[in-house]
Amino acid sequence: MRQPALSLAETSVIPITDVLAWVVVAVFLGGVVAEWQGRREIARRLTVGAWGLFAVFWLLLIQYFVFVHRSIVQSVLLLVAVPGCLYVGWLLYQGRDSLLVLSRAVAFMGLIYLPFETSAIARAVLIETVARQTMLLIDALGYGESARLVQDITGETTHLNTFYFPATDRASRIVFACTGIGSMAIFGGLIAAVKAPLRRKAAGTAVAVAVIWVLNIGRNAFIALSNGHQWFDQAWLEGPVMFAFGLEDPALVSFFLADRVLSQGLAVFALIGIAWLVARWVPEILDIAEDLLFLLTGDEVTLRGPEAAPDGGDRET
């Protein structure tokens, strides 16, 4: 092959961040438990500390996403996340207790995500399931004869996760971050954090997971086909894309444009759309959105009225 197989979405493997992630989640959960026990001041202090540790966590990942992964979207988000976490901690310290709900969401996100990320068996099953379903979509779109689903040709794992295109000698592979579990954890955490009837929470979770799963399979197929068929092999694109990502091989342009620019850029809008859809079942998550908008604008924004939510759901106070 002309190159090692590219990952459709690579992940950082830094031992210290793996450990720190569990520490961050543990401290957030400590705040959740303290709040449940009615110890609001202890909950606030623990959660402020958790946000500080969270900022350190993102700070440690900046070098990877900027210089190794070379993702413009994720690099920008990380650069915003560090001061953002510190700002949330400061506001909470100053008494904005509504942010305890957002903090609770982060704790539950970690509980959903980290067991998959740290379990080799769960990770392998998830990766191969996504790879097989992506291959089924590629075949359904009429490109099955041009691609093969093969074992990880980098030798890093034994997973059946690589899409190889013999005609162009290009390959890309599914890794953990390509499974969509991160986005599912976000919505799972948000829904778990708010007070709402269980059946509405279950419905909202089912909608979020189903939509994310389908969109993610489509995204993976698009990136694999773009790289395998060199869809963006255009002279006028080579210069800007190679300069932006520090590439030396023009054959990488299709992959980086499809993955790092188009897919990751559209993912932001997709998440917003999914949030709007989920809010129809669990409008309580709009309370968290109000806090996020306050963090971004500094202005109080009301996205839903003060009345009780459908089926007896109450606003968080």
Descriptive notes:
The protein is mainly α. The chain has helices spanning 15-36, 40-68, 72-93, 99-118, 120-140, 181-193, 198-228, 235-245, 253-279, 285-297, and strands at 6-7, 148-151, 160-165, 170-173. α7 (198-228) packs antiparallel against α9. The longest helix is centred in the C-terminal third of the chain and has 31 residues, at 198-228. Residues 9-13 and 308-317 have low confidence and may be disordered.
A few lines on this structure:
The chain has 317 residues and is mainly α.
Topology, pairings included?
Elements (H helix, E strand, L loop, with lengths): L5 E2 L7 H22 L3 H29 L3 H22 L5 H20 L1 H21 L7 E4 L8 E6 L4 E4 L7 H13 L4 H31 L6 H11 L7 H27 L5 H13 L20
Parallel strand pairs: 1-4
Antiparallel strand pairs: 2-3, 3-4
Keywords:
317 residues, four-stranded mixed β-sheet, globular, 5% strand, 10 helices, mainly alpha
Q: Strand order across the biggest sheet?
A: 1-4-3-2
> Helix proportion of residues, in percent?
55-70%
- Between the first and last Cα atoms, what is the distance in angstroms? 59 Å
Strand tally is: 4
Note the total helix count: 10
Number of domains: 1
Low-pLDDT segments, ≥5 res: 9-13, 308-317
Structural class: mainly alpha
Largest sheet: 4 strands, mixed
Instruction: Report the radius of gyration as a whole number of Å.
Output: 21 Å
Q: Could you give the order of the helices and strands?
A: EHHHHHEEEHHHHH
Task: Give the CA-based shape.
Answer: globular
